[in-house]
Amino acid sequence: MGTEMVMVHEVPFPQQILTSKSLSLLGQGITDIEIHFLQVKFTAIGVYLDPSDVKTHLGKWKGKTGKDLAGDDDFFDALASGEVEKVIRVVVIKEIKGAQYGVQLENSVRDRLAAEDKYEEEEETELEKVVGFFQSKYFKANSIITYHFSAKDGICEIGFETEGKEEEKLKVENANVVGMMQKWYLSASRGVSPSTILSLADSLSAVLT
């Protein structure tokens, strides 16, 4: 991991991470909710991409402003489905049971798959595997969930790190499930973190310009 750190809502994120190549932090934000006029933050999010991949695969949006891109579902669909390596790093701010997080993920992915008539037995089995991975975990503050989406083969490796324990990993190999997991975080109109989408849109607009 790179040594330069960026603070995202008081949570440190490396500016770059190394996978098969160096990926840069191009989007950042939070998941939150407002309760009685108080903002409650749940997670901080960082999205890592290779800027040269963005230019190669998303060049037709060159010249668009960040505001244009932030509201463009086609653009974010192309990002999610494109042959672009991505890492989404999620850091827990407010403690939560892993089972709660898993249910949120399951509901979103299942609904998206069902809407496109892609929710078959294979998808159900794979999604249950993902939910099972989170089921027994407790997300203490500063726990880290990492989604590493490979560029070409529709595979995602999920990692979970928490204080005092070794990192645990799960490989998700159903391309339909993996695609909708990406769209949970990378969707203009239905993403779980609008602030991340706005940040990513501004960065990608600059990269494409």
UniProtKB/TrEMBL annotation:
<dbReference type="GO" id="GO:0016872">
    <property type="term" value="F:intramolecular lyase activity"/>
</dbReference>
<dbReference type="InterPro" id="IPR016089">
    <property type="entry name" value="Chalcone_isomerase_bundle_sf"/>
</dbReference>
<dbReference type="InterPro" id="IPR044191">
    <property type="entry name" value="CHI3-like"/>
</dbReference>
<dbReference type="Pfam" id="PF02431">
    <property type="entry name" value="Chalcone"/>
</dbReference>
<dbReference type="InterPro" id="IPR016088">
    <property type="entry name" value="Chalcone_isomerase_3-sand"/>
</dbReference>
<protein>
    <recommendedName>
        <fullName>Chalcone-flavonone isomerase family protein</fullName>
    </recommendedName>
</protein>
<dbReference type="InterPro" id="IPR016087">
    <property type="entry name" value="Chalcone_isomerase"/>
</dbReference>
<feature type="domain" description="Chalcone isomerase">
    <location>
        <begin position="19"/>
        <end position="206"/>
    </location>
</feature>
<comment type="similarity">
    <text>Belongs to the chalcone isomerase family.</text>
</comment>
<dbReference type="InterPro" id="IPR036298">
    <property type="entry name" value="Chalcone_isomerase_sf"/>
</dbReference>
